[in-house]
Each structure stands twice: as C-alpha cells, then as structure tokens.
Amino acid sequence: MSRSERPSEDSLIARFFAPIAGEGGLGLKDDAARLTPTPSHDLVLTTDALVERVHFLPEDAPGSIARKALGVNVSDLAAKGADPAGFLLSLALPDSWTESWLADFAVGLGQASRDFSCPLLGGDTVKARGALTLSVTAVGQVPTGRMVQRTTAQAGDLVCVTGIIGDAALGLKLRAAPAWSNDLSPDEKAHLADRYLHPQPRYRLAAALRDHASAAMDVSDGLAGDLAKMMRASGVSAVVEADRVPLSAAVAKAVQTSSDLLDVALTGGDDYEILCTVPEKALDSFRQEADRIGIPLSVIGRVVSGHDRPVFRMNGLERRYDVGSYQHF
Amino acid sequence: MSRSERPSEDSLIARFFAPIAGEGGLGLKDDAARLTPTPSHDLVLTTDALVERVHFLPEDAPGSIARKALGVNVSDLAAKGADPAGFLLSLALPDSWTESWLADFAVGLGQASRDFSCPLLGGDTVKARGALTLSVTAVGQVPTGRMVQRTTAQAGDLVCVTGIIGDAALGLKLRAAPAWSNDLSPDEKAHLADRYLHPQPRYRLAAALRDHASAAMDVSDGLAGDLAKMMRASGVSAVVEADRVPLSAAVAKAVQTSSDLLDVALTGGDDYEILCTVPEKALDSFRQEADRIGIPLSVIGRVVSGHDRPVFRMNGLERRYDVGSYQHF
C-alpha cells in the first residue's frame, strides 16, 4: 500500500482503537477523555515509554508489545495499591507500519485492557522519525491518602516479593542462544522467553498492598537495584537472604550451569513483580490475601537501619550490588 | 562528555525535573504521582506527542519545544472547559542530547508549567532510537458533567473563534524564506515565527466555555478542517464568512501579495485558538467574560443543519475545504 493511500489519523483511530475504547473515551471522537473519579479517592498517575530495540525487539509480536506497554504501567499502579481506572496511549509509528501490524497491536491492546480492567481512554498517533515509540499513561484510584509509597519502609519490616525473579532477564539473554541455554528443555526456554515478553502485572494485589504494606514498588530495573532505591528513598537499608529469592526451575538450572547468572537474575530487569515491605505483625494477613488471589509471596529479608546499600547474603558471603546497575541511560 | 559519564536517569530527574515538579509529583521519587481530585469534579485527560522534524525543528530553542509540548495539551484542556491540574512527560532522548540542552528544556518547561498553572506530576525518560520524541499527558478538572464536548453543536448556534488564525501556518512557511515574505517587515516576520513556536493556550477561557459554549475544540489542524470535524461529530454543518476570520496585519499583508495564502491561513495548523459554538442568546455574556480576561473573540459564522462540509463564503463565492486537508499521516 503506497504512502498516499494510507488512512488518515482519524480513520485509523476509528477503525483500530475506537472499538477497544472504554466509556470515558467518548468513542475517541473528542480531544480529551473524561473520567469521573470515585468519591473519596485519590488518583494515581504513571507514565512509561517503550522504544523498539531498547524495551522490545522488532520481531516481537505486535500484540505482545501492546500488552507489555500497558502491563508495565499497570504494574506501577498495582505497586502503589491503586486499582486501574484507564489509560492513554501515545504511539509514534515509523513510516514502515502496516495495517496488519496495527490491527494485531490493537487486538493485543484490547485483550490486555480487558485482562487488567484498564480501559483505553484516549491517545495520540504521530509519525515517528526513527523507531516505533510508545508511551502509556495509566490512571488508577486509591481511597484518599492510601497510596502506597516508596519512602515509608521502616527498620524491622519484612522484605517481600511476589512471584518469581530473574526469568525475564534470562529470557532476554536467551535470544542470543548462549551456551548455558543448551542445558534447558524447550519448555524451560519457552517459559523464560514468555516471561520477558509478557509481564503479568500484579494488579489483583493492590488492595492487599494498601492494607498491609508499609512501602512498595514494582521490580522493573532489577531486584537488587530497585530494593536499593526503595531503601534509600526510605532512609533505611536491608539484609536479603539470596537463597530465599524465588527462582524458577529454569533459572535455578541455568545458575547451576553458569553461577554468574544469579547476578543476572538479581540485577536484570523486566520482572514486574511487586517488591514491598510489611510489618511483621501484618505478614499473616497479607499472606492470606495473596494466597486467596493466587499470587505467590516470598519473604526474602528484613529492613534494617542504616544508609548502606542492601546486603545479599549467599553461601556465607555478603554481597552489595551497585545501585543502578541497570540504567536507562 | 562521553557516554559513560552520562548521569543516570535518576540523577537526571533529580537534577533537572524534580526542582520544577508540583506537590503531587512527590519529588519525582516514586513510581507514580498522586492527585487528589476536587470533590464533585470530573477529570479531563488528553495526550499529545511531538516529534522532531514533524512538530518542531532541531534548531528550535529547547525551552520553546518544552513550552509547545505542554501548551498544545493545555490548549486541549481549555477547549473542554477544564482547568489544568497537572501533567506527565514522557521524553525519548536521542544519544546526542547534552546537559545544556536538557537544562534549557527543563527551565522552559518549568516556566510554561507556572504560566499555565499546570504542575509537573511525573514522567519517564528513555533512550530514543531516532529523533527526539516527547509525549505529554495533561489532566484537567471540570465540575461533574460540565466537560464541553465536540459533538454537541446545535443548528442556529454562532461559530466563534478566539484570537488570530493563520499566523502559525505562515510562521512555519516563513522558514523557507518564500518570495511573499519579502514584503513583510522584520517585526511582522518575527510575529509570525513566534506564533508558530509559542502557542498561547487559552486556558483562562475554560470557565467561560463551560458556562456558555454548546461545543468546542482547539484549532490545531487548521480552522477549516477542525470546524468540519466538529460539525461532523455534531451531525450538523456551518456557514462561515471568510472575511470575519480574524487575521493579523502580517497575514493580511501576505494574503494581498499572494492570495492563495488565505487557504494556508484557513487550513494550516498550529493555531491553538479555541473554536466553539455558542447559542445566540449566550453570546453577550460569553463576550463579556472573554473581554474581561482579555481574550479576543470573533463570530465567524453560524451552525446550520445538514451534513455537508462547512461553507466558507468569500467575495461572493462559496468554498468547501476538504476535511482533513491537514493529516498527521
């Protein structure tokens, strides 16, 4: 299809995005969306951008890219104890876009939007000068004053993490077919690859987090670095028992083959699990809630006073990772 | 400065953006921003992306780019009758960025944020693969149910526009030093150039719009095309007296030199004025409000029933412009 036969922005929106929009999106026919907040609630707002070859790869399925763009933002909301209310999408499309790519992208976005109960409210579509670039702004709600912050961890609290750590980082590395991957079964490889492509934001944990956690954030830039950020923001430190960090069978096997992969698992990005601190007396109730909704929870350490980087204890040794070992710049 | 000496995203945020953040931004230390909505108000949300060489030029001052990115979003809020509550910025920076560019960008953004009473709440900074790409999501508030829509113009209403039309479109064309520009004085050229670079969102008109306008949108893609969009969305048409469309002395002079520039003025983009429809009986009150806050207002035509594209009457002729004469794709 030649450039001049391309649909206008309006027809593109009407065809691909209006069908997946929520009620507040007003059919995507207006300049803006409307959201009536729940009374006695605060809004929580977050924005995350994804760039081709930085945050995803050109060969990734369009629906997976869409799901990831929304998922990483919903993950931020979840960590703040916020229930999703909707999102806006800004999409800079390179000249090489095709209708079939965009159709698949919209289907994936619509599916993710339904899965996460986070309706599309609006957006903007522009021409990129370079790689495909997406920016999602997600809006969530918490009862007034109940947003879970990053700055409020207390010495003595337990450090908890949901799900499994390190799968996504190894899933990304797997694409280069490293030697260690030869020992993994096809299922194990598929598991790791899927975890990189398809983050599972823990939005169902939001209510339990605001009821029980003293501080929380999502693990997007690696467990070690994100824990260090949260402890620094709270003016405390932490001690982590590395063997309590939940690893999948695939990662555990890879670490046996190549022990430096443990560092990759602990410092790699894209986990999109929830890292939180919980007062000891709240742990049982928090765990019951997590169990009830089927989200695995591991206690991996404890908040301590001090300003040093968190310590990871492993095999009788103590290890402190550089803060920001993973950087966007 | 070599790549490896570049500050991390966290230090970049702390240095350039945290100082200009509003209270809801929580010092930009958290994953998300918090906004406590005014009771009995709806939120209005809009997002607009700007791409280098599409929406601005590499040689534009960084502060001007920042102001435009925020301004075009605040303009959308204003057209919906919404008072600004805050914004989030997603910034994809190409590898060639410099600290001085970013410092100037942040100063311009902070100034615009204060001018428009629209505080920075949060953002994301990522590495671009290609041109500088910015996406702003702005949040505004209106009393519940009072958002001014695009779909509610009524036959018989007057068609009004604020300020001056066509300056920005000619200001952009001026950069190629066309023959017609030889007749303009340096001041006239500077005026047109400035109007392209520095849109003046009409945020102070928001309250008057929700009190008096039956429908509204901002003029970003050209008066003729945007009017056609609003009429179509409302299921009506319009008749415009072209000689009532407010032009600056500079544009009027340019049109005298080259008559086809009138089409450029009427169909070009980047005006960021407000186009609205007002019931005849509400006009006096609306004009009084606009006068009081110093925003010029012109009645340029009338909404009529029908589904044709709006007619522009000029010199005894009738002209219908193609809808979407300006397209992002």
TrEMBL record, chains A, B:
InterPro entries: PurM-like_C_dom, PurM-like_C_sf, PurM-like_N, PurM-like_N_sf, ThiL-like. Mg(2+) 3 binds at residues 31, 76, 218. Residues 154-307 form the PurM-like C-terminal domain. Residues 30-142 form the PurM-like N-terminal domain. The gene is thiL. Mg(2+) 1 binds at residues 47-48, 124. Pfam families: AIRS, AIRS_C. ATP binds at residues 123-124, 150, 220. Mg(2+) 4 binds at residues 31, 46, 76. Its EC number is 2.7.4.16. This is Thiamine-monophosphate kinase. NCBIfam families: thiL (TIGR01379).
